[in-house]
Amino acid sequence: MKKIQKTTAKNALIYALALLLVGVISFQIFRPRVDQSQFQPIDKSTWEGRTVADYFVDKLRMTPEEAQDSEKLGASFYVTENMTIDALISNLAYYGFVRDGNALRYALENSEDTNPGKENALKIGKNTIDRGVYGLGTQMTAWEIARILLNYPQEVKTDYSYMFMPGGPYMGEPQGRPTK
Prior knowledge:
By secondary structure, the protein is mainly alpha-helical. It is 43% helix and 11% strand.
């Protein structure tokens, strides 16, 4: 009888370990993969989409040369009362700030948000983006943009009806490279 109990306990342990092993292998095979290249800045020399320089030409009536010079310095990005999280993400992707809107969405959902959102803040996962203005550079990664949007809002002191205005990328944001 004692031998049967030892065998049963041994078999149960073997089955439990086998199930655990199958679970770990399944997780490794089927877990969602994140393509890190989608978080990197866009190479403007090969980018065929619109840029913030195009926005400056269209909306602010800058010459193409002025717009390109302004784009190199960065842009002030306005998160207005009417903006939704989907509009924010698609606009930054459309104007070449991020390579992929889904990568920015992932970065916004998975970055640390140290700024408690105001009542009218945009919500993305557990994080918030306050209405205001943000200094963005066109060579930032999606992770860097997410960190700025989540943590460094500047109050809007004017009623601009523009989404982008010329402006440096580190308005009110600590110097140095942001971390994930």
